[in-house]
Amino acid sequence: MKKTFVVSMVAAVLSTSVVSAGSAAPAVKPAATAQVQNSTFTINGSTVVIRSLVKQGETLVSLRDVVSATGAQAEVHNGTTTVKLNGHTLVLKSNSKEITVDGVKSTLKQPVTNVVGTSYIALRPLVTGLGGTLASRAGVLEISTVPLLEGAENPRFAGEGKLILSKSDEQGRADYLVDTASGKFELLLTTSGGSDLVVSPSGDQAAYTDAEGAVYVLDLKNRASRLITSDASIKPELVWSADSSAIFFLQGDKGTVIAKLSLTDGSITKIVEDKVDYKENLSVSNDGKKFVYTVTTLGTVTSDTTNIDEDNVSIDYSSNQTQIYSYNSEESKPAAVQLTASSDDKVFVLSNDGQKAFYVSIPSTDDKAVLLSVDSSQKAAKVFADYDVEQALLSGGVLYVLAAQDDSSSVIYSISTMTGKQTKLYTVPADVTSITVAGSQIAIVHDGVVKVNAGDSWRAVTK
Amino acid sequence: MKKWMKSLTAIMVAVSLVGGASSAAAAKSNLKGNIVINGSSALLPLTLQAASEFKKENPKVRISASAAGSITGPQSVRKGIADIGAVDWDASKDVPGFNKFDGLVANPVAVTVFAAVVNPNVGVNSLTTEQLQDIFSGKVTNWKEVGGSDAKIVVVNRKFGSGTRVNFQQKALGGKEFMNKGDNYKEVGSSGDMKTTIETTPNAIGYIDLPYVTSKMKALSINGVAPTEKNVLNGNYKVWGIGYYMTKGQPTGATKAFIEYIQSSKFQNGSLKKLKFIPLSAVK
């Protein structure tokens, strides 16, 4: 009700301003011949029809329509129109090329033009002047004037059109749910010492631990958190079961145990308890029976502290390696199976089925990093070695790779885990630092800004 | 209409390409290097967790970790076989029992809380400073003398050079000396060994940093105050110290970036707290 009233008021004010400006500046010819047409835009996630015209090759849009669609406030005083939105102020005059944005003057290519009582202004200076952004998707311009979340990181998709993003400061971490179409965001959770939110496969729940180790599940629809267990053991990694009925986790400060937490009754079952420390990078098969993880072995130190000044200390790092293991809990005598024995550094260790692992092998030389696969045969096979791999992830049984193509660009590939077929999806600037994927949705982090794919461009959802 | 939209789209794409080119000109951080970290076993869980997270952002940085007690950290850095020496005291200054390490820079990384711990069969929940001094010096040898059952106390001590030992001696025992021999005296080389020994040795008492405390042992209150973050922050629990990463001069390159990561708000108020350390900012 209130919004409607404001918009009506704005419309009335703008109508008045056009008449007034037109009569006060007769030297500029009214654009009587300009053809006004209706154009469809997406503004803040909604489809909106905006009146527009083309003047000497440049598209001008109805100020009144854009003000109405964005919820901006406008007022006219002595022929000068002031438009305000989200702390930005744009000042313009009808029939003038000069505008002022947040106190800074600039010049338009085409003057603000009035046609039948409506002011028309170039689209981009208007939108950017009000702090908005523009992108095109399938030939339709998308305009967002929603104030974006600033300085957020760690994007995770949470269902269709939603991302969870986090901000950290000395008070702790705040997690936000961001609408990828409009950029609108809302606070989900604040925590100090809690784990990251881990989104369920269905995308409608997220699990986390608090600083004490208790596990909660947050319902992303009603925002309610449910305590699953107050078990205080340290849980370095949480992994959802494929059917979202349980959470697997590494347990202890050294990640020694692999355990399963039932979301039905909060019971904890220890699955792998082989006293092998420093497990990480846990993957679980769809049936919850098979596991892939890494084990890091530390360097061996020999020291004699009889005379400290002599520095009688030596470190043997020959055994200091990270190796990948699988574990099938369905076997009659389950035991960890070592999948790798190589000394290369292994990062982004992934598995679909809890038996075959994919990982990015980092060479000790300046050679490029490559994506490999390995199974119990311990024979590593190249999966992607065309470019220097910077990140790999697995979503819906498909591998996604971010790789440096050259000094100025990176590429994003999808790779079928079944056939190995590679598909080049996007070329992005070299300073894209990470990607996140869920189904057909993909987001990148570029210059610290999270952007989602919007057809032929990337739309920022943070700033 | 279509033509108009096409031309508008073309303008838009041209504009965004210009923007893209300009931002692509900024150099991408492509950190490479090899970081060797040795020293405190108390700080080891923190180091490994930070390394795991850091490597996801900087996959070409290899981090090799080991732990054999605090003193071996600055020794390794001084000797040139490690880039970071993890130590439970500021080794750039003299502390009782250890001279300062000249030329090393102390980079604070975490607040560590230390607890006196006993095997779960010990029927004592709290000891005074004096009782702890008497037990760890060997003056009191039976649990019945401090309110427990009639059983000989097994004292488990960390080896000389342990930062946990330095902190516990200074802050829980008021600087009093430890016993160093006897039938019911053991010495262990790391926090992990201390954990295992306390869990499996009836009537044992030792001390350990909070991340290593498990359900198979009991952390004692000291003078009636439990070893919790809350009691450290309200000033009631005194047995805590700051853990440092010692570097030869100011850190550079990958080492600098790793230390900055572990000192970041994101890590300090996230994984660090989850591992039961206290953020540096909380005790400033």
TrEMBL record, chain B:
The keyword Cell inner membrane does not apply. It is found in: Cell membrane. GO terms for cellular component: plasma membrane. GO terms for biological process: phosphate ion transport. Residues 1-27 form the signal peptide. Belongs to the PstS family. This is Phosphate-binding protein.
